[in-house]
Amino acid sequence: MLMAKSALAQTDGAPWAPIGASVAHRKCLAGTLGCYVRCTTSQRIGLLSNWHVLSHSLAQPGDRINWHRPTQQPTFTQYKQHIPIAQLGDGFIDADGDAAVAWLTPEPTQLPVKLGSFTGTRRAQVGDILAKVGASSGLTRARVTACGPFPLVFSQRVITINAIQLEPLDEQPQHQTICAAGDSGSVWFDEKTNQAVALHFAGQPNPFVGPVNAQAADIGTVLMRLNLSIL
């Protein structure tokens, strides 16, 4: 299984946040470090999350991205340290998803042994049971129930994203949390094969407001758009 909550590793003096850690641009609400990636052209190593987590309307390439290292009993708003670990790279929010990469600083020359990793990627199929590690909800599981267009309101405009929809395994969704505020940017993956499947970008965790669900973009498409390979 993915070593999503591995101990903090250090390489070349630079801290590596674990997969599932809370990260964000200093002017954005916190989201989740979904996975580590490598640029297929420059070979630079970075972290992958959502565009709405790592960027905003006035953001510029090179802006600082912080790791919100939690206290002993972390909550969504309670953090101990904001540690700069990366600089904003490229990203997008359109029909292919909501994604951005941030390049690690200082640039490492090797990967830490305890870095959580994926074996590759695959496409989602209706009926799949997938898991993710979110900064707020931790390890959760859900079933893929649909694949298709999903409208997302962003900066007062509606963007239709080709996405997968996931719903609780339990027939009584009020007894199961599959996502929470702060989970944006986490990666849904197949626990049996450790393959990454989709990048989480939205969800409805409250059964009293509407059906509990989560939406995510195809990870293969995201990686192709940003010229990345998954680590």
How do the strands and helices of this protein lay out in sequence?
Elements: E1 9-11, E2 14-16, E3 22-25, E4 31-32, E5 35-39, E6 45-49, H1 51-54, E7 64-75, E8 78-94, E9 97-104, E10 120-121, E11 129-134, E12 138-154, E13 157-167, E14 187-190, E15 195-204, E16 213-218, H2 219-225, E17 228-230
Parallel strand pairs: 10-15
Antiparallel strand pairs: 1-2, 3-4, 3-7, 5-6, 5-17, 6-9, 7-8, 8-9, 11-12, 12-13, 13-16, 14-15, 15-16
Structural notes for this entry:
This protein has 231 residues and is mostly beta strands. The chain folds into two domains: 12-115 and 223-230, Thrombin, subunit H (Beta Barrel), CATH 2.40.10.10; 120-219, Thrombin, subunit H, CATH 2.40.10.10. It is built from two helices and 17 strands. It has helices at 51-54, 219-225, and strands spanning 9-11, 14-16, 22-25, 31-32, 35-39, 45-49, 64-75, 78-94, 97-104, 120-121, 129-134, 138-154, 157-167, 187-190, 195-204, 213-218, 228-230. Strands 4-3-7-8-9-6-5-17 form an eight-stranded antiparallel β-sheet. Strands 10, 11, 12, 13, 14, 15 and 16 form a seven-stranded mixed β-sheet that branches. Strand 5 and strand 6 form a beta hairpin. The longest helix is centred in the last third of the chain and has 7 residues, at 219-225. It is globular, with a radius of gyration of 16 Å. Mean pLDDT is 85; it is low at 1-13. It comes from Halioxenophilus aromaticivorans. This is Peptidase S1 domain-containing protein.
